[in-house]
Amino acid sequence: MTAVTPERADTPVTSATPDSPALAFLPRSLHGDRRRWHDGPTPVSLADLTTITRQVAAEVAAGLHEVRVDHTHRWSRRLHADPHLDVWLISWTTEQAAELHDHGGSIGALTVVRGELTEWRWTSGRTDDQVTAEELAVCGPGLRRRALPASSGAAFPLGHVHDVSNRRPEPAVSVHAYSPPLSTMSYYEVERGTLTRRRSELVEPGASPEGGQVL
Q: Does domain 2-6+13-208 have CATH number 3.40.1190.20?
């Protein structure tokens, strides 16, 4: 496996304080409700992550978090980190994209603050409730495209494989949350309708999500 370093961060990465916005949205039952483990190896559920990204996105829209745009490298900043969760703010200029990938043993969610992102996600048709039986019968397994405009988002269960990009002329801004924090990612190609894993990489603590730069 290849180590991954942070893609772009203009401020030091620090853990959030108990008064930080993201931490305030954690469920009170985080450490005591074992039912939250049904989504994966973490007490934070997909619903929790969706709520967190929506709440933090509202703060970004209100101007409570600085956003920078870099036309050379996709800009990102980690807003919160603890053993169960990290939360990221990312900006995307036109044609900036992440390679087709998964999130290793982490689940995740994103909410778009402004602009629009495009997601291509792989579906086998077995576990994706957004693909109808009729569509699967006609199209079969493969990549499905969806637009994610401002105020919308997506959740990433275990095994979710996707890429994300900005195809619009205006920059896009999004909030992402992962639990547990990313530690590995695998990258894929689709050949003749078959999803093939090409490589897996270790993610260094504090490395940017949705694809980092490989040394």
A: no
pLDDT number for residue 206: 79
For residue 114, what are its two tokens? 């402004």
Quote the pLDDT of residue 171: 97
Closest by Cα among 35, 80, 74 to 60: 80
Integer Cα distance of 111 and 95 in angstroms: 19
Between residues 136 and 1, the one the model is more confident about: 136
Listed by start position, the domains of the chain span 2-6+13-208
From the list 101, 82, 86, 100, the residue with the least C-alpha distance to 175 is 86
83-104 average pLDDT score? 94
10 Å CB burial of residue 214 (0-12, 13-18, 19+) is exposed
For residues 214 and 212, what is the distance between their CA atoms, to the nearest angstrom?
Answer: 6
pTM of the model as a whole = 0.78
Residue 9 CB contacts under 8 Å (≥ 6 apart), including other chains: 76, 77, 78, 206, 208
Backbone angles phi, psi at 74, to 5 degrees: -60, 125
